[in-house]
């Protein structure tokens, strides 16, 4: 049974890529088999999972060439149990082809269910947006995690996203889009605004906010400067420990063992 | 003579909105007349310039209803010399209508030149992307500022952006898209990665990086929590001073007096 988890947020720079990469790595070292798919044209993930050689095929073929088998797009990473589809949406032309193909919001879900049922987890990283690419990710997912920085622009953007989430829900047939929870990221306990906003979120939203908080942690910045996830860079760091705790909380909360 | 400046970056959360809002406010208190246009469906700017009353018309009409005069879309803010067009691209439907209209990359430029020539500066905030909305902003601009956080994912995303910038340049006729410079934002001098990346950028790119650096500054987070720009919140703060210095550097470098 494969569980598909996506990291979605219209707000930029809140830790979507960092969280997708590190949760995937945590599952992989925890013995689960994991496929990580980068849906963002920025293609940030390839810099965090140690993929050296320039790939040729990836997310572009996944979305615009339905005849190319998904197995051909899958790459290995520096972690045994972690496989990866790299984002190769490089030109404006590529982007336009993708946006044309994904007007069908069930596309990604169909492609994933074709060849990828042998993974325990599939993790999707989406770009900062609420467009059709995000709708595709939402429709394909069993659980949606919303990373949130405890700052007012991010909170306002989340409110707007949750409103459009209802609209997105109406657009899809016969499927309930499930938000697994809000994940507080880049949290600085010395920052008065972070402390205040964090408290407000827990009291207003209770269980829909994960108990695990991802603190702002220099090991994460250092790991990414070295082209690694913090899990493979420094397993005993505050950052890596937080993502392992998130994995445990997810497995318990949604009975994913 | 109106100068049009845009803040563009494919990377999310690097301070595009914060920089657009605060540079616009700095020009306004410096006595210039300024129009700030929010092109991001997230509509973050309305929370930073003290626009209380829910607007009805804005960026949506600017882009999809060419018969609506631009003057009708312009709102006042809490600063006398600062006017503003608010982003009201609210539903997925709205976004699709916008993306359809902006396949014409000259659209925004035409709309701005219709009614807005009485401003000294027009400042554009774009969403994190390289799509047609960004191309519209680039084509309409005299000067493009690229905010950059000194972290490896942002630097890699900038490199990718500069490659697609050349492609964007080829797509537009008879106009040279001019990058005014790279602006280092959210800079933390205690962070070893920031110091190293900053040094590398100055030695590799020299004058294309603004001498003014915007430090990470709690006054900026506090101001945004209060729905203000840091200029109107605390004019003598480190954050506000940095944006005033950026204004001076721009005026000198490009002779905008
Ligand atoms: N917990 C953390 N501690 C320190 N730095 C972090 C943390 N999480 C993320 N970062 C850094 O913050 C920046 C933004 O994170 P990231 O790129 O993962 O966000 P994103 O939401 O994927 O951004 P985008 O909107 O561009 O896709 C990156 O430079 C990343 O290395
Ligand atoms: N110099 C700074 N010091 C402290 N906080 C800052 C600074 N600049 C921006 N911020 C905060 O960092 C976050 C990201 O900034 P901002 O929203 O302006 O970036 P953006 O590039 O416009 O993001 P998006 O990609 O979502 O449009 C916001 O919460 C903002 O308040
Ligand atoms: Mg990302
Ligand atoms: Mg913004």
Residue share in β-strands of chain A: 5-15%
Unreliable residue stretches of chain A: none
- Oligomeric description of these chains: homodimer
- Cα-to-Cα separation, first versus last residue of chain A: 10 Å
Q: Mean of residue pLDDT of chain A?
A: 93
**Helix percentage range of chain A:** 40-55%
Which pair has the most extensive contact? Answer: A-B, 45 and 45 residues
Ligand list: adenosine-5'-triphosphate, magnesium ion
Largest sheet of chain A: 7 strands, mixed
Shape of chain A: globular
- State the total count of DSSP E strands of chain A: 7
Major sheet: arrangement of strands of chain A = 3-4-2-5-1-6-7
Individual helix count of chain A: 10
Rg from Cα of chain A: 17 Å
Q: What would you call the structural class of chain A? A: alpha/beta
* Strand/helix succession of chain A: EHEHEEHHEHEHEHHHH
Write a compact overview of the structure shown.
The structure is a homodimer of 257-residue chains. By secondary structure, chain A is of the alpha/beta class.
Task: Please characterize this protein's 3D structure.
The structure is a homodimer of 257-residue chains. Chain A is built from ten helices and seven strands. Chain A is of the alpha/beta class and 257 residues long. In chain A, helix 1 (16-29) crosses helix 10 (238-253) and helix 4 (107-115) packs across helix 5. The longest helix of chain A is centred in the middle third of the chain and has 20 residues, at 152-171. Chain A is globular. In chain A, 50% of the residues are buried. The mean pLDDT of chain A is 93. Chain A binds chain B through residues 10-14, 17, 41-44, 47-48, 90-92, 95, 99, 127-131, 135, 149, 151-153, 156-157, 160, 164, 167-168, 171, 191-193, 196-197, 218, 221-222, 224-225, 227, and chain B through 10-14, 17, 41-44, 47-48, 90-92, 95, 99, 127-131, 135, 149, 151-153, 156-157, 160, 164, 167-168, 171, 191-193, 196-197, 218, 221-222, 224-225, 227. One magnesium ion (MG) binds at residues 16-17, 40, 44, 125 of chain B.
């Amino acid at each position: 049974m494969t569980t598909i988890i996506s990291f979605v947020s219209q707000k930029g720079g809140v830790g979507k890529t960092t969280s997708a990469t590190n949760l995937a790595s945590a599952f992989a070292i925890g013995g689960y088999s994991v496929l990580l798919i980068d849906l963002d044209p920025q293609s940030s993930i390839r810099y965090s999972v140690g993929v050296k050689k320039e790939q040729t095929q990836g997310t572009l073929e996944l979305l615009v060439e339905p005849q190319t088998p998904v197995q051909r797009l899958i790459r290995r990473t520096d972690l045994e149990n972690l496989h990866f589809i790299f984002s190769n949406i490089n030109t404006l032309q590529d982007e336009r082809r993708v946006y044309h193909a994904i007007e069908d919001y069930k596309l990604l879900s169909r492609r994933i269910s074709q060849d990828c049922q042998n993974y325990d987890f599939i993790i999707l990283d989406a770009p900062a947006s609420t467009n059709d690419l995000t709708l595709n990710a939402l429709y394909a997912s069993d659980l949606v995690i919303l990373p949130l920085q405890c700052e007012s622009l991010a909170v306002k953007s989340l409110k707007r996203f949750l409103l459009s989430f209802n609209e997105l829900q109406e657009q899809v047939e016969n499927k309930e889009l499930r938000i697994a929870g809000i994940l507080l990221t880049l949290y600085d306990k010395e920052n008065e605004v972070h402390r205040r906003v964090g408290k407000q979120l827990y009291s207003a939203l209770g269980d829909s906010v994960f108990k695990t908080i991802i603190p702002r942690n220099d090991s994460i910045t250092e790991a990414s400067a070295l082209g690694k996830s913090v899990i493979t860079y420094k397993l005993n760091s505050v950052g890596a420990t937080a993502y392992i705790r998130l994995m445990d909380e997810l497995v318990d909360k949604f009975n994913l063992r």
